Amino acid sequence: MSVAMIFAVAGLVAAGTFLVTSRSLSRVVLGFALLGHAAVVALLAAGGPAGAPPIVDGQSADDIANPLPQALSLTAIVISFGLTLFVLALARRQQVLTGDDLVEDDVEDRRIATTEQAREAAIDETRELEQSNDQQEGGS
Amino acid sequence: MSAVVALCVVLPLLASALVLGLRRQAKIRDLITVSTLAAVTGLAAALLFEVDRDGTVVLRVGDWAPDLGIVLVADLFAALILVVASATILVVELFAIGQRRTPAGADPTVVSPILLVLAGGVALAILTGDLFTLFVAFELILVASYVLLTHQGHESQVRSGMTYVVINLFASTLFLFGVAIVYSATGTVNMALLAERIPALPEATQVGIGLWFLVVFGTKAAIFPLFSWLPDSYPTAPTSITAVFAGLLTKIGVYVMIRFFTLMELDALGPLLLVIAGFTMIVGVAGALAQDDVKRILSFHVVSQIGYMIMGLGLFTVAGVAGAVLFLVHQIPVKTVMFLAGGLIEDDQGTSALKKVGGLATSKPVIAVLFALPALSLAGLPPFSGFIAKLALVDAGVASGAYVIVAVALVGSMLTLLSMTKIWLGAFWGDVTPSAVPASSRRSVAIMQGAAGLAVAGTIVVAVAAGPLWRMSEQVAGDLIERTPYITEVLTEEVREASD
Is residue A25 within 8 angstroms of chain B, CB to CB? Predict the structure, then answer.
């Protein structure tokens, strides 16, 4: 595996992961495209050094490139192409429903967060009341 | 007999293409779907009988040598799980036929063909003897599940569907990297060859590969801490869909984990697996206790129960793996029927929130029975299948001296019983709430209850046939730990002649 290939994979994975963690689905799609490329490059690199096209026409088996990772990569490319389309369709549906393509919070998470906030607000309020009561008592 | 192995994968996919064209002929479509799924279940049962009697059946697709082509391997483990899985999909399809044309029901023109694709993908994932074909099978299952989860296009489904799709896409990409790593380390993707070459690698490489695939399969199986997508997305789908997801998809992840980790001799990960198992049990059940909706409670239980199977695997003994296999066989029908019962509640009351439902034990005694039997089994009370499976696991844990995980498993069981009691108190006792079924509803309660009843019968069969099943589980576990039957059957010089 050449160093250039390793850096190519590393760069693609870094950029892809950064995009996938984004809230906007269109960026997530781009992120997965990059990650898919990175996986394909890694697969090809795993197949050993580059060589002549793997066609049996009198060449010795030592000269040609390993055809198995190429076949695996093709399958992986087709699958990731189909899934990219599905995620785009999902993003479109989200846009129709809510006007944007942002990934939303979990409903339960939000509920817990709001009850937490409400409780904190209530605690603060009672504290303020107690303080003002104390001040009044101190003043009288 | 090797033709049967191929038919289990090909038949549902062919039927799916056929059914996709029959958008208007509902009767023919249902007939084809149900008869195909029934045929696959029958073939799987015949395969199990054959494999149990004569040993592993190996199919070399296109007659290629195993290191070049794809092999499908039906050993006892694969055949056993295939029977349970295809029977489960059949029951769910029957339920979906009964439930259609209600707001909660799935669209039959979509569900029939996609469920068949799912059945084909599940069969391929169970039977494949090749790491890359396993990736393709996972994709087949996942694409089907993406469509099933989001096909109604409701806002909640699109929201949770995104989380589900993004997490699973990421796991699939990691799987692909894993294939690249394994290929560059060993030069093959055939599992039997990997089983010979991976244990020969340096120990650090072995552990690295093991950890990588623990993350990949663990995301599919929803183990701690990779489970957070599951309780968020499962409850939003139509009930019949949630039932097949909860009963089957995570269990396929567990099946593949058991297969991969035993075959690659990754015993070094055993202690880590036990820690993960303990956290999965407790965190899952604690999440369930905090919920107040039947479907959400059950979704957290899916996570919690995965912990028990991982515990059996983590012990890496014959008794432990046998317990995990038996637990898998018990868990698939039980989990499915619990969600179907949850679906019957939702169908009758219009909601499955515990605060809004009550008194079903008097108003709908059939639903109460359909819920109570698997609930007791899930909590692990005798004489149900859950008790036998948990007893086997606890016994194996004590035999290995892993007392901490045994204690955690027992505490988890108690908490499971507690949260089942919570559903029972909330939904089945208390003041009777009126049924919320619109008069114009075209659903068929008889078919829905019949399908759920079939699944309950399945769980009882697991309990009654515990003797033979335990014998099979022990044989499966012995073969898995031993590894040689699998490797020699796949790599034998002579192609095994079809014995039919």
Answer: yes
Grouped pLDDT means (10 residues each) for chain B, 500 residues: 87 92 84 94 94 88 82 92 94 85 69 92 94 94 91 83 90 94 90 91 93 94 89 84 89 94 91 95 92 88 93 93 93 91 84 82 86 88 88 93 92 91 86 70 75 88 89 92 88 51
Residues of B in contact with A22 (CB under 8 A): none
CA contacts within 13 A on the Cβ side of B361: 10
Q: How far apart are CA B185 and CA B213, in angstroms?
A: 14
Q: Nearest CB to A103: which of B139, B162, B173?
A: B162
A45 near B CB under 8 A: yes
- The 10 Å Cβ neighbour count of residue B492 is 12
Contact B76, B44 (CB under 8 A): no
Whether A90 sits inside 8 A of B158 (CB atoms) is yes
In tens, the pLDDT along A25-47 reads 888 999 999 999 999 999 988 88
| Chain A residues whose beta carbon lies within 8 Å of the beta carbon of residue B166 | 20, 28, 87, 103
* For A92, nearest residue in chain B (alpha carbons): B158
Residues of B in Cβ contact (< 8 Å) with A40: 176
Q: Does B212 touch chain A (CB under 8 A)?
A: no
DSSP annotation string for B46-61: HHHHHHHHH--EEEEG
Could you say which of B158, B166, B183 has the minimum Cβ distance to residue A46?
A: B183
A77 touches chain B (CB under 8 A): no
Closest CA to B183 of B113, B130, B118: B130
The alpha carbon of residue B427 is apart from the nearest alpha carbon of chain A, in Å, by 21
List pLDDT tens digits, range B62-82: 888 887 788 999 999 999 999
d(CA A48, CA B269): 30
CA B93 to each of CA B105, B244, B441, B447: distance values in angstroms, whole numbers, following the listed order: 12, 9, 19, 11
Say whether B158 and A69 touch across the interface (CB within 8 A): no
**CB-count burial class (<10 Å; 0-12, 13-18, 19+) for A136:** exposed
Neighbour count for residue B5 (Cβ, 10 Å): 26
The CA distances from residue B341 to A58, B92, B338, B373, in Å, are 66, 12, 5, 11
